[in-house]
Amino acid sequence: MNHAETDSRSFLHHGWALAPERAAVDLETRTAVIADLHLGYEWARGSAGDCVPRHSLAETLDRLAGLFARHAVERLIIAGDLVESTRPCESTLLDVTRLMRWLHDRGIELVALMGNHDLALARRGVAEVKQFAPRERFELRGWTIAHGHKRIAAARLISGHEHPVLRFEGLTAPCFLVADDMIVLPAFSSNASGRDVARGRIPERWARDQVRCVAAAEDRVLELGPLGAIRAAHLQLAVPVRGASLRPRRRSRKNP
Amino acid sequence: MLVSPTGSGKTLAAFLAILDELHREAAESRLAASLRCVYVSPLRSLNYDIERNLRAPLEGIRRQLGLDQSPIRVGVRTGDTSPHERRRLRDQPPHILITTPESLSLLLSQAAWRERWRGVTHLVIDEVHALAPTKRGADLSVSLERLTEHTVLAPRRIGLSATCRAGDSAALYLVGPTRACRVLYAPAPPHAQAPTIQVESLIEPGEQGHRGLAHRRLITRLRQLAAHERTTVVFANIRAMTEKIILDLRLEALARGEDDSVYAAHHSALDRERRRQIERALQEGRLRIAATSTSLELGVDIGTIDVAVQLGLPGGVSRWLQRLGRSGRRQGAQPRGILLTSTPAELMGAIVTAWAARRGEIEPTRIIPAPLDVVCQQLVGMACAGEQSVDDAYRILLRSGSMSTLERRDFERCLAFLAGELGSPASAFEPSQGAPPRTTAPRLWSRNGWFGVRSPRVVRWFRANVGTIHTEESARVFSGGAALGSVESAYAERLARGDRFVLDGRALEVVKVESGAIHVKLTSNEAYLPRWTSDRPSLTRELAALVATFRLEAGRILLEQGALALELWLEDRLSTSGSAARLLLDLFESQVRVSEIPAIDDVLVESSPGPSDETVLHAFHVPLHRAACEALARAVAARYGRVLGRNLSISVADLGWSIEIPAEIADTIPEGLMEQALDPRGFQTDVLEGLDRGELVARRFQRVAATALMVLKNPEPGRRVRVGGLNWVAARLYPLVKATCPDHPLIQEATREVLEDLLDLPTALEWLGKRPRLRQRRLASASPFTLAWIDPGRSEPIVFESSADALKRLQSRLTAAARGGTP
After folding, report:
1. Concatenated DSSP letters for B622-683?
2. What is the residue extent of each domain of chain B?
3. Which of the two residues, B460 and A133, has the higher pLDDT score?
4. pLDDT at residue B793 in the model
């Protein structure tokens, strides 16, 4: 059996502990994988003219601290979309620097992978941390880790980018989608709105029988069984969708 | 304040004094080229009215005086004014400036206009009844004070209103707390006739629940009106309905080989130019039927309308009289209105509306007390014009009719928010050095008793986002390169090539989707109605109480004197037609058969299986309007939830609400829960808890944040943030701000708006304080009154479980399903 509970809070999938902090942790190599941090979200809003409180770095660090308190982690892989803005401002770069320093202080190695929001960041670099050069992919124990915005040939893939969530009775739970050859990570950032896996159109890879859904709820994860069964159960949407809906919501294109 | 029905010439009356003054000065060659009178109207398409009410009289005076050219210059400044014209108005101000609340706010934010206001002696505010009870009106009332601040002599204010009760607060709105106001009621013209109001039911007895049938009859009835009347305006309350009516009328006409161009839809999602075309067609008598949501309700001259038709209920008496007043403006004609209803509950509501309208029982004006989001926008506006003293700003605000109750503390917190001084989340990992700013893009600096804008970008943002009108993000629709109108972005996102929808009363097929633009072509295939967000119309406090009273009286007659007596009472006392009376009789008889007619001092609670098998429904019937029911429903849901520990959902309506409880715990509902739930003690606290667990305040916060310029409706071009979606402000920003700064002025405003404007807490409490008797009924299915009035199903979740608990429940449900149970 490939699925087993590690502690009461995480869920083990082929050696990866899926943690409620929206991370997949390889216990053997002490490597945590997260995706879609969208750091500097508020600064991106600010440059569009919004006056909102600073929060994303603090939320990120709080969540990481929770993860590291329960799992011994020596390496953190950020599978793309480290930042929100495709034109990151100084404050965003400062947040990234602070995150790096925070990890460094804890002796945690950072591996950043390229996401579609990160292109400019990679070009520009981060002032203090010159070696910031996101890679396209990372191989670990036979798994390929990549952001997932581009097609990538891999036997077993861990990716982000899609922000899967499960909407049910007015609550939105970030979730992992897992199969023997894939782990789709939920967005680490709470700012990223999700793609509802229970309703609407999903990629072909998710529509296979073996794909299972593992939802993160507060301080634990819950294995909910095959995604197909969840979709077949027609979960009640809390707020009824009124008006004629023509077709399932299509994926809106994110920033190029 | 001059009170007289729309179209009676009151706009000209308002201008007479200043026209006289200006002509005298011109005759004595002492007329200076400076601004003297500012006229503000809530309507953006002013040009027609002004043409008729001002330019034509000016031309007449010119001829009478034998002048080559009128000495008086008139200028119009609205959102549609070209940049060239804007500059001209600024450099050579007219004697009379015609503008809107938004444009006035913009002009006041420009330092270049500061000197222009000095000589203003007259302020004319049109449609006061429509402005006074809104945030838009609150914004204008501050602008008026700011303008007055710049004048040498305090200008005379002239307010125009179609309706106004004696001693109404609309007068306070116009002049503020420091000045006196005279209210003049214009006598009715000699040949004016009282309006006639007719109530019709589209369904016959025994046909309840046939929505399709009612709609087919509606089309037939409208075709009948089109054949007999010159022009009919149909008020359909919501945009989708106006589209549906016009599409069906057109298709019917085409099928019969008739002219389909005599039908048109008019609502705010149609392109401005298209709306102007329709207004012109109406004026020139080229349309038989124009269907509108609300956009033809006010001002704009739409020619001679024979009949005003209301679909369903207008909500209030004032509003119905306003709509009705759009008809019969031809010399010697009589205003005529028809209320067309498709359900028995609508019919009952319409009968009562007509009864109250005939007696002229208009509702009092309720001014929104000191809305803080408007304060914030006005503070930014003041700062845009130049550095401003904090004390002066507060003094100016206090003088306005809408802001007279503004507390200094609240005012200062607004300023602190705009200056970026209110909290951000505390983190265990606060960087020790070089702490980043607490908020992004603060608007103002504030120190030593003065404030001003932080950067020129703030001025740009203010100008691009001025105003309090909240519209959903939208995508424009183009047909052959010409703009037709728009659909909401949330809807547009679902559209793909080949999809079909209705707009401008035509079926359209999507040819191409671009970001922010949908290209379409006409199609003859079946198409769907777009979805537009709008507030559900509801009854006023007064009308709801009347409906409850009439309902009770009808029930009493039925029980004491029998069916025939009730029928006669409906026909004679309430001028109901025979078949409509029988329809209501059916409703009352079937209600009495399974339950009872709710009394005024009782609360009737009917429990029955819910709309799906998974829930049990508790339907509460009370004699209150939706805002009061909304408060009661929240408190009762909070009390239920605390005892039951499960997520519930509520549906709120006029005259009652319902709560859905998961069926599997229905047996565990303790005895006496309903009595406890209606206890007036601790009521307000529980209303707040019910609100916290729902999403109403968060959704309101979205608008409040936009009005206060916390988030911009029109962000810096090319910088719109995509991740997070349209709901980010409600789903993330609201809890974030609330957690870090619970007394943030915008949290306070969103809560106030919900508690006072959306929820009528005082009325709910007053009624509860009378300790209404609880009457419980257990029914096999929802009662006729529940289905007619409360219509459960459009519900909002009230969350009591943690997300982990709810997910665990989902998990066991899915596991059971996998083992072969029913999902």
Report:
1. -S--HHHHHHHHHHHHHHHHHHH-S-EEEEEETTEEEEEEEGGGGGGPPTTHHHHHT-STTH
2. 2-185, 196-358, 383-429+438-465, 474-522, 607-805
3. B460
4. 62
What angle separates helix B344-358 from helix B541-561, to the nearest 10 degrees? 110
B2-185 and B196-358 have identical folds: yes
CB A197 within 8 A of CB A172: no
Residue type, A186: P
CA dist B79 and B86 (Å) reads: 10
A:90-109 residues touching chain B, CB 8 A cutoff:
91, 94-95, 98, 102
- The average confidence (pLDDT) of chain A is 84
Task: Return the exposure string of B620-656: e unless at least 16 CB atoms fall within 10 Å of the residue's CB, then b.
Answer: bbbbbbbbbbbbbbbbbbbbbbeebebbbbbbbbbbb
Q: What residue of B is the nearest CA neighbor of A170? A: B797
Q: In this predicted structure, what is the pLDDT of residue B19?
A: 95
The burial class, CB within 10 Å (0-12 / 13-18 / 19+), for B32 is exposed
How far apart are the two ends of chain B, measured CA to CA in Å?
A: 65
Does B823 score more than 60 pLDDT? no
Pick the CATH number of B196-358 from 3.30.1330.200, 1.10.260.40, 3.40.720.10, 3.40.50.300: 3.40.50.300
Look at residue A120 in the predicted model and tell me its pLDDT.
80
* Among the partner residues B420, B422, B794, nearest to A240 by beta-carbon distance: B794
- CA atoms of B199 and B313, how far apart (whole Å): 11
- Residue B434 confidence (pLDDT): 58
Cβ contacts of B461 on chain A, cutoff 8 Å: 49
Interchain CB contact of A48 with B (< 8 Å): yes
Residues A5, B247: Cα–Cα separation, whole Å? 59
Report the distance separating Cα A96 and Cα A92, nearest Å.
Answer: 6
- CATH architecture type of domain B2-185: 3-Layer(aba) Sandwich (3.40)
pLDDT at B47: 60
CA distance A46 to B442: 9
| Strand B656-662 to A220-226 pairing | unpaired
Cβ-defined contact of B711 to A50 (cutoff 8 Å): yes
Q: How far apart are CA B573 and CA B748, in angstroms?
A: 47
Short-list A23, A186, A171, CA closest to B731: A171
Torsion angle of alpha carbons B104, B33, B111, B173, nearest 10°?
-30
Give residue-wise pLDDT tens across range B303-349: 778 899 999 899 899 889 888 887 776 666 778 999 999 888 899 99
What is the spatial distance between Cα B100 and Cα B77, in angstroms, rounded to a whole number?
8
CA–CA distance, B678 with B671 (Å, rounded to integer): 14
Give B697-752 pLDDT, tens digit per residue: 998 999 999 999 999 988 888 787 777 766 889 889 999 999 888 899 999 999 99
Residues A238 and A171: their CA atoms lie apart, in Å, by 8
Given this model, what pLDDT does residue B795 score?
A: 72
Tell me, what amino acid is at B447?
R
Confidence check: pLDDT of B212 > 60: yes
Residue B821 tokens read as: 């149970």
The structure's pTM equals: 0.87
- B201 pairs with which residues across the strands? B341
Does B360 have pLDDT greater than 90? Answer: no
pLDDT tens for B421-459 read 886 555 545 554 556 678 888 999 999 999 999 999 999
DSSP string, B155-180: PEEEEEES---TT-HHHHHHH-TTS-
Which one of A48, A94, A235 has the shortest CB-CB distance to B712? A48
List CB contacts (< 8 A) between B528 and chain A.
244, 246
Mean pLDDT score, B550-557: 93
CB B644 within 8 A of CB B636: no
Q: List, in order of start, the domains of chain A with CATH numbers.
A: 3-232 (3.60.21)
What is the Cα–Cα distance from B563 to B205, expressed in whole angstroms? Answer: 14
